Amino acid sequence: MLNAPVAVEVFSALAHELRLEILRLLLVQAPDGMPAGRIRSTLACSGSTLTFHLHCLEEVGLVRAHRQATSIIYTAVPEALTGVVDFLMKDCCGGRPELCDSSAASGSKNCGGAGCR
Q1: Residue 71 is part of which domain span?
Q2: Nearest 5°: phi and psi at 115?
Q3: CB within 8 Å of 77: residues ≥ 6 apart
Q4: Total of domains in the chain
């Protein structure tokens, strides 16, 4: 389970529009990922800017990189995102997670607790 200091680092990494776009793009491409050059052209940013932001996402464990021939392929780490959601939902609905399942967040189920929809 994620602890508060690590959660703050993850939220900090996600608190930038381009990093959020990168992560969302890589989640769409999961599990295969994308080469850095394709991410750069898709998001229309410079190579150095992309490198900086990918590094931030890697540091908090939301993205992984691996070499494939001459390319570096970046992939999202969905289980890291699950850890963040679990951290936020841990005490939802008075600690009764069965009332606050993932369908509650989409509005398809009312969890009955204050602030949970």
Answers
A1: 4-80
A2: 85, -5
A3: 61, 62, 63, 64
A4: 1
Q: Classify residue 111: in a domain, yes or no.
A: no
For 13-55, how does the pLDDT look when each residue is reduced to its tens digit (9 = 90+)?
999 999 999 999 999 999 999 999 999 999 999 999 999 999 9
* pLDDT category of residue 115 using cuts at 50, 70 and 90: very low
The two structure tokens encoding residue 30 = 């999961």
Q: Position 1: which residue type? A: M
Q: Report CA dihedral (78, 84, 89, 91) to the nearest 10 degrees.
A: 140
β-bridge mates for residue 66, sequence order: 73
Nearest-angstrom CA–CA distance, 60 and 80: 9
Q: Examine residue 87 and state whether it is found in any structural domain, yes or no.
A: no
3-state secondary structure of 76: strand
CATH number assigned to the domain comprising residue 69: 1.10.10.10
